[in-house]
Design goal:
Strand 13 and strand 14 form a beta hairpin. It contains 1 helix and 18 strands.
Length: about 190
């Protein structure tokens, strides 16, 4: 038997001691989580801090065709804690339902004219647009940050870019980033 901490609505806080090294936290007699030498485990749901997280970059620049949305080829992972990012399809498909903080950025390789922006695509369609930089500055950068609900089974995310007159993107850690993590389980 584990050591118990139980919040009981009629009797108040109950503590039950045992010789076990496990501690169970309960609400009205129902175990919510267990703490032991392996760490904290939730009986239902996922603790956000232990959920899926990834960070990826592009190993090579991408040519952006004028006024066309192009899927960005994030083929290098910095990390992928739950193997939910696919470097072949450039998709993040989390297997835990919840709300994900997703971030993306792309730099142009040189001076550009016209709009330059990135977008998060969810399940193959434009979902959120990022910042729009324009007017010939050297190496503009477009970024996006969004909190997105994912169903944990079939939902997936990709990052796309578009430029008014066409350009070449940056690559690597300084020129391209796509990352995210579970902010809150559903």
């Amino acid at each position: 038997m584990a050591n118990l901490i139980n919040a009981d609505p009629t009797a108040g806080l109950k503590l039950v001691s045992s010789s076990s090294s496990d501690i169970q936290i309960q609400s009205n007699g129902v175990t919510v989580c267990t703490i032991n030498a392996d760490g904290l485990s939730m009986n239902t749901g996922t603790l956000a801090g232990n959920g899926p997280a990834f960070a990826a970059t592009m190993s090579a620049a991408v040519t952006l065709t004028a006024a066309t949305w192009i899927k960005l080829t994030f083929n290098t992972e910095a990390f992928d804690t739950n193997s939910n990012f696919d470097t072949g399809t450039y998709r993040f498909t989390p297997t835990v339902e919840g709300y994900y903080q997703i971030n993306g950025s792309l730099a142009a390789a040189g001076a550009t004219t016209g709009y330059f922006l990135v977008a998060i695509y969810k399940n193959g369609s434009a979902f959120k647009y990022g910042s729009n930089f324009s007017s010939g500055t050297a190496g503009p950068n477009s970024t996006i940050n969004a909190l997105i609900y994912m169903n944990g089974t079939s939902d997936y995310l990709e990052l796309y870019a578009n430029h008014a007159s066409g350009t070449t993107s940056g690559s690597g850690n300084l020129g391209s980033n796509f990352d995210g993590h579970l902010a809150r389980a559903a």
